[in-house]
Amino acid sequence: MTKNTAEKTKKKLGLSTQIFIALLIGALFGVAIHYWIPSGYIKDTVIVEGVLYVIGQGFIRLMQMLVVPLVFCSLICGSMAIGDTKTLGKVGVKTIGFYLVTTALAVCVALGSALLINPGRGLDMDAIQKGTVSDAGEATSLVDTILNIIPKNPIQSMANGDMLPIIVFALFVGIMLAKLGTRGSVVANFFSQFNDVMMEMTMAIMKIAPIGVFCLIARTFATVGFSAFAPMLKYMGNVTLALAIQCLVVYQILLFVFTRLNPLKFIKKFLPVMGFAFSTATSNATIPMSIDTLSKKMGVSKQISSFTIPLGATINMDGTSIMQGVAVVFIAQAYGIPLTMGNLATVVVTATLASIGTAGVPSVGLVTLAMVLSSVGLPTEGIALIMGIDRILDMIRTAVNITGDAVCTTIVCHQEGSLNREVFYK
User: Fold this and answer.
1) Is the pTM higher than 0.90?
2) 37 SS3 class
3) Could you identify which of 26, 71, 114, 399 might form a hypothetical disulfide with 217, taking C-beta atoms 3.0 to 4.6 angstroms apart as the criterion?
4) Where are the alpha helices (DSSP H) in 149-282?
5) For the chain, how big is the Rg over CA atoms in Å?
6) Are the C-beta atoms of 144 and 358 separated by less than 8 Å?
């Protein structure tokens, strides 16, 4: 009986819980090595730069392996769905435009707050680089950044891992496939099925994430000791602050400006949906509750919300974009790599466009973070520092994401003359 109970308890541990536990154990193990085991061949060569380094870097390489094919297929599938929305006329155009603008604003909020708070200061990752960091010191002008978005050779861009050209090419392919309709069905089905394969591969690799995180974090703490704790807490606070600004300030200002509705009343009525999203950490599960709440409490037309809410769950990832924006600054500062204006512009564009194809699997946000880091030449190893605490932040991000979907829906509904204000003010 005791054995069966223990087995059941073990089965209940989700991947996020396992990663968080691995983070804590890895940090404690690393601190123990740093302070209690004297330097020597066993500690430095066998444990830190041997076992921990090889397994940790192996996991990072597996994640890097996913980036190009996963992002390429996800964006083609996402842009195919957007292409279909043209049949819905101006409602589709307004909704997509609003989602992309709020995502860009979210990245700007994240970068701005991170540059003020400096979450990565005080964490010297140079000591543990071991030649794994790419050179981000080359300054790229804003003009070159814009021109480099257009791929001269898409195949070469994929081989080199140049993410912005890959994103643009994928968007073009997806939109053209949507335009072709049945004529492009064979190619469309191929990319859709290949996207499913990549999602399954992502989930398979994420199953070993606890082991990878343990080794990466243990190596970090074995090298820098307790000095890594404060920046991690700073990072969490920074992301939470940026999410709060986006949800309670940016969205509510947009709501008031476009509809003249009371933002406080909106938050009060939508709070149960936000709580549900926070507890489940999945936008998709919240779709029915969002549509029902918007209809019964806000006076939003179900004809509009039944389109805008599911679309938002697919392409409106403001919370994820905020995490990526703060993480870029955090990792750049931790490794002592300066970010130019061109780098920051690249982050805004990359994170905004990548939001179109990052829905469906929670761990995909971390894979696309690897893509955003690569686009500005930052080391993807830094992801290990935030992976373990990402579950807590993911819950807050989801609540922010679905709030953005609801605000957009209310604004679009108002502009289309389908908003019942009497229901809202009941």
Assistant:
1) no
2) coil
3) 26
4) 154-160, 163-180, 185-206, 209-224, 229-245, 251-259, 263-280
5) 22
6) no
